C-alpha cells in the first residue's frame, strides 16, 4: 500500500521548524505536521507572505492555530540565521525541515558574499542546523530533513570554485547546491552516529511550486517563465504530492539516517528510496565540504549562542 499523508504518525508534543513554509512544499509540510498535532514554527523570509500562510493555516486548521507561529528567517543573510536561532525559545526541537530554496537564478550574491544558490540552499541551512543542533539533540527522536533535488545529478560540486566565480551557469550552480545538500546529510549522519538523531534527505520529483519560474520572472524572460508555468500545469504533480517524500523522511518509522527519499517513479509517485549520483556517496568529499562550510559560515556544530 502506498504511503500517504494519512500515514503520518501522531506528532503531538513534538516541535517542528520548517523553512520556506509560506508556500509550496514547505506550506504543505507545515500544514500536515500541524494537523497531526505538532507545534510548527514557520520560518519565512517575507513577513507579509509568512503572515498570509499563517492565516491560511488558521482557516484550514482552526484547531491547530494555537500551535503554529511565524518567525522571520532569511537564509541569504547569516546574521538573520543567527538571530532566528538566538530568538527561538530555548527548548528542544524535534524536527528541522530544511526546505527553503532558490532555483536557477541570475547570478547574485548573498549578504555575506556567497553565490546565492549555494549560499541559500546549502550554507544557510548548514548554519541553521549547526546553531540548532544542541536543541535537536535534547529531543528523544530528533530528525533533520534536508530537501535536495533529482537535478543534483547534473553536476558535482567544485571545491575550487564553490561560489562560481570562474564561471556561472544557473542550472549547474543549482545542481551543485543540491549535491551539497546530499553531502551535508551524509556528513551530518556520520558525525551524529551514536546519537538518536536521524539526518535524512528527500526530493519532491517534479512538483508544481513557484520555484521553477522565479529566476525567469526576475529577469523578465517571459518565454522561459511561460514554459515553466506550462510545465507546472501539464506535467508536474501537485505540491501536496511533492511534499510526501519530505513528510515520509520527517515522520515515518524506520527512516534510516543518511537515507534519500523521493517519488517512486523519479518525478512522481509514492515515497520510495531514491537514486543518488556516485559523487554524493563520497565520505572524503562530504568531509571537505563540511570543513569549508564551517570556515565560510563561522558556525561549528555544537556551537552555543551566547544569550
From TrEMBL:
Top-level taxon in the UniProt lineage: Bacteria
Keyword Oxidoreductase in record: yes
Signal sequence residues: none
UniProtKB keywords: Oxidoreductase
Gene3D superfamilies xrefs: NAD(P)-binding Rossmann-like Domain
GO molecular function: oxidoreductase activity
Record flagged with keyword Oxidoreductase: yes
Entries under Pfam families matching the protein: adh_short
InterPro entries membership: NAD(P)-bd_dom_sf, SDR_fam
UniProt similarity note: Belongs to the short-chain dehydrogenases/reductases (SDR) family.
Identification of the protein by name: SDR family NAD(P)-dependent oxidoreductase
Organism: Streptomyces boncukensis
Lineage: Bacteria, Bacillati, Actinomycetota, Actinomycetes, Kitasatosporales
